[in-house]
Amino acid sequence: MYKVLVVDDSKAIREIEKKYLEEMGFEVLEASNGEEALKILEDNSDIKLILLDWHMPVMNGYEFLLKLRANPKWSDVKVMMVTTENQQKSIIDAIMAGANEYLMKPFDKEMLEVKIKYLMELS
């Protein structure tokens, strides 16, 4: 079973993503900002996928992504931005910083599932 880390400051969004992911058979961990997510990653070396929001307090998704990709031990972790951020420059910045996929909120289970299956095939 794959472990997935959901990083979003909205508890409601985390609960929706967690429900969908568990229905797909994933074990789900949660963090409300990038700093929390880094701590969880340190304690869970078997996380395969991160669903990452952009706008969060303490450490935003972009800052987290830069720190994640700067550490070689996390180079195999797939990252999908799941965010309302829809500016083309932001999407390009996220991909250039190491995001593997980008999903706009609001989203449905089917679109989430398609993108996750694609990412898992890349592994």
Account of the protein in words:
The two termini are 14 Å apart. With 123 residues, the chain is an alpha/beta fold. It has helices at residues 11-23, 34-43, 61-70, 88-97, 109-122, and strands at 3-7, 27-31, 47-52, 78-83, 101-104. It contains 5 helices and 5 strands, in the order βαβαβαβαβα. α4 links the parallel β4 and β5. The chain has a single domain (3-122), classed as Response regulator (Rossmann fold, 3-Layer(aba) Sandwich), CATH 3.40.50. The model has no long low-confidence stretch (mean pLDDT 93). The longest helix is centred in the last third of the chain and has 14 residues, at 109-122. A 5-stranded parallel beta sheet has the order 2-1-3-4-5, sandwiched between helices.
Number of DSSP strands?
Answer: 5
Q: Summarize the helix and strand pattern as letters.
A: EHEHEHEHEH
How much helix is in the residues?
40-55%
**Corresponding CATH architecture:** 3-Layer(aba) Sandwich
